[in-house]
Every structure is written in structure tokens, then in C-alpha cells.
């Protein structure tokens, strides 16, 4: 097993012996100190995804299944060695579709995949035949907030980014124009058409966020119902993979749909309060089109 991703509460592994054409990844919770606690969380998370999230995202949700991993597969994964000492149980994990672009050299270490751009909200990868966006759209729907929640939060914590993901919903032509440098121009037309299509993945997420709007709860204007609040916040913390092929095909999937711990409540309330009490000049409102920036893509 090879580590391919590490978050605050989980690791993602690739099985380097898997030669099947459809690759899978394994997501293991490291949120707690013992296997028993992590297995318990993974099971609750799995039930949450199946019962609450899947009916909302349907086919947009990345293919996944609950999987019991034997300990011997993890002997060389440094990140779980302490965890493995806590019990002899099998490790419950979520086995999911690998949405990354395939390595063009057949998987050898010197991959020809190129990272074209990278910030917190958007990563762009290309091969000779495909372009892949890895997008964290955050708060696409901010109407009830009164300002762009994503831009205002990014500005508050001094986080730089190329474009606000909301622009891909409100002004797709302008957003794609900014993203596609001259070397990516071959994808320009099909991506613009895709983001203009009302059935695209971001429009779908926008409508879901509108329906699951947490702002009244976060502002103490209505009683807090942790179950609906957690679902609303899951929908604001997903990752979207959009893959566009030179042949014109576009495929889009959503990942990172995990059950949020209820202990996050204080953090959510405090963050909303900080944002709401910022001076008006610090709140970002998308009123008019900004001028396209210079080419910020990496060479
Ligand atoms: Zn914005």
C-alpha cells in the first residue's frame, strides 16, 4: 500500500499491486487513537453517506463501498503503525473510485501527469488527452449570508486563490476564461458549455446548498438541529473532480462527504460570528465582473 493523501482525520492509500483497469483507493480514518474507535466512526460515517448523502447526490457521488482491510496490507504504512498496536481487529475503510488521471507512463514513478495549477480551492492536472479540475467549492450559495462566504472567509484568513468557485456558477464564461491559459485553450469551449449547463455538478450542489441552508442556525435565528446542520456543512466541505477529455467527454464526481463531528459546532458558530462582525469593507460581494488577471498558471 502506498500513501497518496493525508488529511486531518484520515489517510488515503493506493494498492500498488492492483493491476485492474479501474483503480480504487482506500480511505482510513485516523481521527481517533484506537482501531475500535476509528472503526466505529467509519461505520457511522458509512451509514451517514448511504442514508443521508447518497440520496442527495445520487450518481454524482463517487463510487464507494465499505471494506475490511487486513492488517498485513498495512505493514509498510508508517502513519498507522501506532494505531495497529491498539487492537487485532480488521481495519474498516472506505474503498472508492480513484478519480485521479492515470499516469501516462503506465504507473512508473516518473509520471508525466502535470500539475498545472494549485491553490486551496482549485487544482488543475493535465495529461496529453485530459484535463482534471479538483475543486473545493465551499459555499456556492451565499444569498442568505449577504456576502460571498467563500471569498470573505478566504480574505479574512489571508488565503490567496485564482478564482472564487462561485463564479463557475454565476459567470461560467468569465471563470473559464480566467482558468484556461493559452496552453489549456483546447478545453475552453467544452468547459464553458459544461459550466453553463444547468444540470452540471456545481449547479446541482448550489441547489442542494440552497435547500440545506445553515445560516439561520449559525446566527442563532432558529433552534440548532445538529443533524440538519451537519448535513448542510458536509455539503459545504466536499471536493469535486471534473475530468474533461480532448474527445469532448466530461465526467464529474463528488468526494469528501464525511459525517462532521458534533464537536465542530462551536467552531462553526464562532467563524460565522467573526465573519458577520467584520467591517463591511472586508466583506466581499460579487457585483460586477473583475478584470481577468494575468496568467497565474504555473509553467
Ligand atoms: Zn466569492
TrEMBL record:
Transmembrane stretches, by residue range? none
| Reactions it catalyzes | 1D-myo-inositol 1,3,4,5,6-pentakisphosphate + ATP = 1D-myo-inositol hexakisphosphate + ADP + H(+)
Q: What is known of its domains?
A: The EXKPK motif is conserved in inositol-pentakisphosphate 2-kinases of both family 1 and 2.
Enzyme Commission number, as recorded: 2.7.1.158
Q: What's a BP term from Gene Ontology annotated to this protein?
A: inositol phosphate biosynthetic process
What UniProt keywords are attached to this protein's entry?
Answer: ATP-binding, Kinase, Nucleotide-binding, Transferase
Q: What does the record give as the function of this protein?
A: Has kinase activity and phosphorylates inositol-1,3,4,5,6-pentakisphosphate (Ins(1,3,4,5,6)P5) to produce 1,2,3,4,5,6-hexakisphosphate (InsP6), also known as phytate. Phosphorylates Ins(1,3,4,5,6)P5 at position 2 to form Ins(1,2,3,4,5,6)P6 (InsP6 or phytate).
* Any one GO molecular-function label of the UniProt entry: ATP binding
According to UniProt, the name of this protein is: Inositol-pentakisphosphate 2-kinase
Query: What's the top EC group for this one?
Result: transferase
Q: May I have one GO cellular component term?
A: nucleus
Which family, according to the similarity comment?
Belongs to the IPK1 type 1 family.
